[in-house]
Amino acid sequence: MKRVAILISGGGSNMIRLVEDMQGDHPGRAVLVASNDPAAAGLGKAAAMGVPTASVDHRAFKGDREGFEAALLQPLLDARPDIICLAGFMRILTPGFVQRFAGRMINIHPSLLPKYPGLHTHARAIEAGDAEAGATVHEVTPDLDSGPMLGQVRVPVLPGDTSEALAARVLVQEHRLYPAVLRRYAAGDRSPVLLTATELHPGI
Ligand code: GAR
């Protein structure tokens, strides 16, 4: 059984789907949900599901990224995770922190990587006139949003889409993708999960 820690910054809807999925014959179990924001709504939701939580307020470290990460490391090491899932965790991690968990930390990013690493992914896809957007789960490496791909879901961009509407449509599909990837990953299978949101294509 793989011990899984999940890092969040906000509502934690992906985290909830991961925790919900980790039952029965699943090869992983959630051992910790941690956040850089003590007010993150996801912390209470994790606690309500019986998962231990921790928070380290990054604002207390004022630009001292290593200090923040040293504080975050403590509850993480205590939880002895085999796998760390970043699920809407909005802090950039230093290469030292990433290397400490090399090969066992994964992230979900709301774009079809390698397109649009970083922020404002949906607005950038709409602005570029892309026909498709989506989300990618990848291994975390020191370079932002560029580790090996473990899964991807493609979602149509519809006429008149706003970034909010597109983000909501992609998020629904993130909730399918991330649990599917974690199931494989926790079982030691790195082959990519490739999904298409066909039900959103009118007429298909
Ligand atoms: C998700 O859309 C996730 O892909 C994105 O934040 C959202 C978190 O939602 N992550 C990033 O942008 C990471 N760079 P959630 O808190 O409801 O899971």
UniProtKB/TrEMBL annotation:
One term under GO cellular component: cytosol
Binding site for (6R)-10-formyltetrahydrofolate: 65, 90-93, 107
Organism superkingdom: Bacteria
Residues annotated for N(1)-(5-phospho-beta-D-ribosyl)glycinamide binding in this entry: 12-14
Pathway: Purine metabolism; IMP biosynthesis via de novo pathway; N(2)-formyl-N(1)-(5-phospho-D-ribosyl)glycinamide from N(1)-(5-phospho-D-ribosyl)glycinamide (10-formyl THF route): step 1/1
Keywords, alphabetical: Purine biosynthesis, Transferase
UniProt catalytic activity: N(1)-(5-phospho-beta-D-ribosyl)glycinamide + (6R)-10-formyltetrahydrofolate = N(2)-formyl-N(1)-(5-phospho-beta-D-ribosyl)glycinamide + (6S)-5,6,7,8-tetrahydrofolate + H(+)
Enzyme nomenclature, EC number: 2.1.2.2
Domain Formyl transferase N-terminal: residue ranges: 2-182
InterPro entries, sorted: Formyl_transf_N (IPR002376), Formyl_transf_N_sf (IPR036477), GART (IPR004607)
GO molecular function, one term: phosphoribosylglycinamide formyltransferase activity
GO biological process, one term: 'de novo' IMP biosynthetic process
Residues the record marks as active site: 109
Family: Belongs to the GART family.
UniProt function note: Catalyzes the transfer of a formyl group from 10-formyltetrahydrofolate to 5-phospho-ribosyl-glycinamide (GAR), producing 5-phospho-ribosyl-N-formylglycinamide (FGAR) and tetrahydrofolate.
PANTHER family, A to Z: PHOSPHORIBOSYLGLYCINAMIDE FORMYLTRANSFERASE (PTHR43369:SF2)
Xref: HAMAP family: PurN
NCBIfam families the UniProt entry points to: PurN (TIGR00639)
Descriptive protein name: Phosphoribosylglycinamide formyltransferase
